[in-house]
Design goal:
The chain is mostly beta strands and 327 residues long. Helices cover 9% and strands 15% of the residues. The chain is built from three helices and 13 strands; from the N terminus they run ββββββββαααβββββ. It has a four-stranded mixed beta sheet with strand order 11-10-9-12. Strands 5-8-13 form a three-stranded antiparallel beta sheet, with helices on one face. A two-stranded antiparallel ribbon has the order 1-2. A hairpin with a 4-residue loop joins strand 3 and strand 4 (39-40). The protein is globular.
Length: 327
């Protein structure tokens, strides 16, 4: 497995005013450093950047480091790039069928969130189907083999030299794909990227919309793969406790997900109330859901994140929407 020399903590993809994609820390983190040895060890477990014991895959938790005993806790305890591979920690079997989101209305946005989440407004949407999981490496590889999709820009992930090209990660979300690559895959699969409103309704539900896909309880690693859990992507569908009201997995954490819409911070003040599809034009596309680097706030069902459609990153993927199957 890959041993990095750079510690990534709370890193996210940001679109700058100059039009570049930047990797920027979400917050400053104090580090414990031993000047004489050049060892930077934030959690005091002896592992870190430049430490004699070796690098640490999670410098937020002293119980997680190379050589630690793997337990069933939805974390990569021993820093080998895998989660819960100990006996008795088997992940649930995957169901390839999409989830059904019935027609309905809901309150979109948040009065307590960021400025671009306001005002809260009622949106009515048609029924549709949505991928139960984020699109995986295996599914995307089929599109590449068929000649309908370009390969990801990199074959690796944050902590793994081989990821897209390693069968061990076939059921992990595809990353390093741009908005156009996501759009091309969804067309290949017979669908499209979901609108921002569709994504939020699928995550929050129509009745008493939820702060998080699972409800109001605070995030933990059994519900979402976010900052402090894995330090990289994880297998899709591992966390049943984090399902949305309609049964979609990983709508909080793991990877940010591209949606179809152009981004406009003021769109909620002027968008239509029936099946909104976002502004007609723009320079940035909307991503939803947070990722493995995110803090709790970015896991909220209402959180919006703009990104350049040509950008790609180790924490960005997608899922597709499809027409409702008529009986």
């Amino acid at each position: 497995m890959k041993k990095t020399s750079v510690l990534l903590i709370g890193v996210s993809v940001l679109a700058s005013a100059a039009g570049f994609v930047l990797f920027a820390p979400a917050k400053a983190v104090p580090l414990h450093s031993t000047a004489a040895s050049g060892c930077t060890d934030e959690d005091g477990d002896g592992y870190g950047i430049g430490c004699a014991a070796g690098n640490d895959c999670n410098d937020r938790d002293p119980t997680i480091h190379p050589g630690a005993v793997e337990t069933c806790n939805f974390k990569d305890d021993n820093c080998n790039g895998l989660v819960d591979e100990a006996p008795g920690c088997e992940a649930p079997a995957l169901d390839p069928s999409p989830v059904h989101v019935p027609a309905g209305s809901f309150l979109m946005g948040s009065e307590t969130g960021a400025a671009d989440e306001k005002p809260v407004h009622r949106v009515t949407g048609s029924a549709f189907l949505l991928d139960r999981y984020e699109v995986t490496n295996a599914r995307y590889q089929a599109c590449v083999r068929a000649g309908a999709c370009a390969p990801p820009s990199l074959q690796s992930s944050n902590a793994r030299d081989h990821y897209f090209d390693d069968p061990a990660f076939a059921d992990y979300p595809v990353i390093f794909v741009s908005w156009k690559q996501a759009q091309a895959f969804c067309a290949f699969a017979g669908g499209r990227l979901p609108s921002e409103a569709e994504w939020e309704r699928a995550a929050a539900g129509s009745e008493a919309p939820r702060t998080y896909p699972w409800g109001e309880s605070s995030p933990d690693c059994s519900k979402a793969n976010f900052a402090g859990c894995v330090g990289d992507t994880d297998r899709v569908g591992r966390r049943p406790a984090g399902q949305s009201p309609y049964g979609a997995f990983d709508m909080a954490g793991n990877v940010w997900e591209w949606t179809a819409d152009w981004y406009d911070a003021a769109y909620y003040r002027q968008g239509p109330g029936q099946d909104p599809t976002g502004p007609a034009t723009g320079t940035l596309k909307v991503m939803r859901g947070g990722c493995w680097m995110s803090g709790e706030s970015m896991l909220r069902t209402t959180c919006r994140k703009p990104g350049l459609p040509s950008s790609w990153a180790p924490n960005v993927g997608f899922r597709c929407a499809y027409p409702e199957v008529q009986p």
